[in-house]
Amino acid sequence: MENQTTPAEENTFMKTRPVFSLLVSMSVPMMLSMLIQSLYNIVDSIYVSRLGTDALTAVSLAYPLQNAIVSVGVGIGVGISASISIHLGAGDQEKADRAAALGVALTVFHCILFILAGVFITRPFLSLFTEDAAVLRDACDYTYIVLCLSFGALLQIAMEKIFQSVGQMKVTMYLLIAGCVINIILDPILIFGLLGFPAMGVAGAAIATVIGQICAFLLYIIVYFRRPLAVRIRLRDLKFDGKLIREIYSVGIPSSIMMLMPSFLISILNRILAGFSSVYVAVLGLLIPGPIFALFQADAELLDAGITALRIICLGFLVSSVGVIASGTFEALGNGRNSLIISLLRQFIVTIPLSFILSHFMGPAGVWISFPAGEVCAAVVAWFFLKTYKKGVFAPF
Fold first, then answer.
1. pLDDT in tens, 379-390
2. How many Cα atoms are found within 13 Å in the side-chain-facing hemisphere of 17?
3. Tens-digit pLDDT profile for residues 311-336
4. Sign of the CA dihedral running 157, 163, 169, 173
5. Taking the model in full, what pTM does it have?
6. Are the C-beta atoms of 300 and 100 separated by less than 8 Å?
7. Rounded to an integer, what distance in angstroms lies between the CA atom of residue 102 and that of residue 90?
8. What DSSP character marks residue 324?
9. In this structure, what DSSP letter does residue 123 have?
10. CA-to-CA distance for 222 and 246, rounded, in angstroms?
11. Contacts of 385 by beta carbon, 8 Å cutoff, 6+ apart
C-alpha cells in the first residue's frame, strides 16, 4: 500500500516533513475519505431510483439519520485522533495507547446508542416528513438496518482516525475505497435479486451499505495485526480515565455538532418541501446536474425540479470555500467561537429562516435560494473575522 515506516518514524512525521508535502499528504486522503463516505448514500440512491421516485424519496428521508452516524463517528474520531497525536507528540506512549483503547470503547458505546435510536426513533422521526404509507415503509426498512447495524460504520471510522493520527493516510483511503466498492457490487445484486438472491428493494440497498462498512472495518483489523502501528489497542489499556475521556469529547463533540448541522438542516427543509411534493424531497437528496440525473432514471417532473434546484444552489459554491476554509482555520487556531458562528451562518441561522419566508412567496425555489444566501453571509462574516483576528495576521492578501 505504501512504504513501510517504523513506529518511531510515525511518531515524528509531523515534525520532520515539509509543510506543503505534509498538507497535501494529509488533506487529499481525508477529502477523498469524506467523498467516499458520502458515496454510500449516493450509490444507494442511483440504484434505488430504478424502483421509482417513491423509493428514491424514502432513501432521501433516511439521509439525515444516516448522516448522523457519520457525523458522530467522524466527530468523535477526530477527538480520538487529536488525543493520540497530542500524547505521541509529548512522548507519552502509555497515554496515547490508552486514548486509542478508550476511543474504541466509546465507539462501542455509541453503537449501542444508535441501536436504541434505530428501534425507538426511526418511525416517529420519518413520520414527520411523509404521510405516504409506501414511502414511510421503505424509509423505515432502510433506516432500521442502517442504524441498528451502524457498528460497522462507527468502528471503521474510529480505526480510520487512529490510523490517520499516526500518518497512515493512504491506508485509510484504500480501505475506504474497498468498502465502497463492495457496496457498489452488492447494491444491484440485493436490490434487484441477481445471482439467485431474492429481490429486497430498498432494504437490499441498506444491507449492501452495512456489509461494505463492516468489511472495511474488518480490513482495518487485518492491517492492524499485520503491520506495526505507533499506537496499540489493548484491553489492558482500557482503564477509566476521566481526563482523557473529556479530552476526546472536548474536541469530538463540537466537531460532531458542526457535522450534524447539515442533518438538522436537511430534516427541516424536507419538512418544508414535503408540503409541496415528495418530488422536491427526492431532489434535495440528490442535487445532481441534468446529465448525471440520467443515472437516477429521473422522470420528467423530477428532472425539471432537480435541474432548477441545482442551478440555484450551485451559485453558493462560488463563495462556500471562503466559509469552509475560514471555519477550519479558526478551529485549528483554537477559536471555536468564530468557527461555530461561521458554520451556523452557512447552515442554520440564515438558511432555515429564509427558507420558511421565501417558500411562502416563491415555493420550492425559495428553499433553493436560501442556500447561496447563507453561503454569501457566512463568507462576508468569515472575511471580517479573518481581517480583525490578531490584527489580520491570518487574513489572505
1. 999 999 988 888
2. 15
3. 787 777 778 888 888 887 787 676 77
4. negative
5. 0.75
6. no
7. 19
8. H
9. H
10. 30
11. 326, 330, 338, 341, 342
